Amino acid sequence: MTDTNLAVIVLAAGQGTRMKSTLPKVLHPLAGVPIVGHVLATARELAPEHVVVVVRHERDAVAATVLELLPEAVIVDQDEIPGTGRAVEQAIAVLPKAFAGDVMIVSGDVPLLDAATLTGLLVAHRAGASAATLLSAIFQDATGYGRIVRTDDGAVHRIVEQRDATPEELEIHEVNSGSYIFHLEPLREQLAKVNTRNSQGEKYITDVIGLLCASGAEVTAVPVSENWIVGGINDRVQLAETAQRLNALIVRGWQLAGVTVRDTGSTWIDLQATIGEDVELLPGTMITGPTVIERGAIIGPDTSLDTCEVGEGATVRRTDATLAVIGAGASVGPFAYLRPGTYLGAKGKIGTFVETKNSTIGAGSKVPHLSYIGDTTVGEESNVGAGTITANYDGVNKHKTVVGSHVRSGSHNVFVAPVTIGDGAYTGAGTVVRKDVPPGALAINVAPQRNMTGWTLANRPGTAAAKAAAAADGEATDKA
Ligand code: UD1
Ligand code: MG
Hints:
Helices cover 22% and strands 30% of the residues. Uridine-diphosphate-N-acetylglucosamine binds at residues 11-14, 54, 78, 82-84, 86-87, 107-109, 145-146, 159, 161, 175-178, 204-206, 232, 234. Residues 107, 109, 232, 234 line the site of magnesium ion.
């Protein structure tokens, strides 16, 4: 049910300079979802009446992603006045006049902050009489964070940013997580008084805390249960740490849901993936995008599945697959490369050193060894010989190969598309199939073999090969 007394403001206008990236910081992916997407998902869980997202740096890209993930969000463009305080000031300006509830502020770069923690903060805020309630954390190393300065009797007094802090203030371990709940009116009133006289020349939201306390209002800081929950992402080191933390949570979730994970550290699973019971994930497995793995499949080791479907009981070993569908009981790899549009039927096989693209390989059909299969349809229960290449590209256009059902094609064939091999047909080893093969026919076009007796001895005398040939040939040895 919608909390009609709650507005959530997401701050996402900052430059993210420390990421040193052309991609806006909040759009960097984390478990397959942009950083800001995690924050929006949490905001949605709280079911607020309003969600306002403040953008500026790369505003078009950020706004587009935000609206795609949360269409009901209101986008606000921050003007040239910098700072988190200015961002909030502009965000509350778009709230309807009738709204008089609580304003929750979260950062677009703190993705692991969860709805349960924020609900706890909201409950504490609403139960007390504070004008503001903020989430704090006790960090051994507080570098980079705003410090919470308390009075001698322990009440919150103000927040000082790292760059503006005195040496004594830098010794404070309690930090500002950047998440707050304010009553709207006092927030609006105090924000109007915030100036930009600080080391960064920015309007800080954190200054509102000191101003509220100076006005006699009470501010409460509630420490978070575990510090990683409020970890912000400002650089690539924090991006990797956060990704690992989130992945550990996701992997654990699937383990508890009945998935065997041999090595949690080397198994990566995106948030959108779905994995059935009794699936086994071996070391070095990456499951990305909305991949679905059905019950009992065995994936890995060293396998990447991006946006794939894997059927019940299938085995996928040392494989790289994107936008591929693998049927129930099928076998893939080791060392297979399944490119977009690959469909492998139930109990089919794509074996060792095989590359497939835009191809359907029917139920029970096998491409076991050393092949390239592109723009091809293979029927059911066929066997494509070792080393088969579909020549699907004439240098200008791509063409289709059709292989029927119950076909047995020979080793080292080239299927020069467009070409059709009929049901139940055979092809000889080394055949270059340029013409359609009717059902049930055997196609051979390799030149007849000639053996030129004594060739090595005559043409390569004195070589090891000649000696070996001579030794094997009794007559030749007698003559020598
Ligand atoms: C901020 C807090 C700091 C806190 C830390 C927690 C301030 C002044 N400082 O510092 O006390 O310990 O978060 O992570 O608030 N943003 C805007 N507009 C701006 C500037 C920033 O929307 O003009 C957004 C950023 O995109 C980001 C968030 O606000 O999502 C925080 O900004 P950032 O520059 O990361 O602040 P910190 O230095 O981390
Ligand atoms: Mg930050």
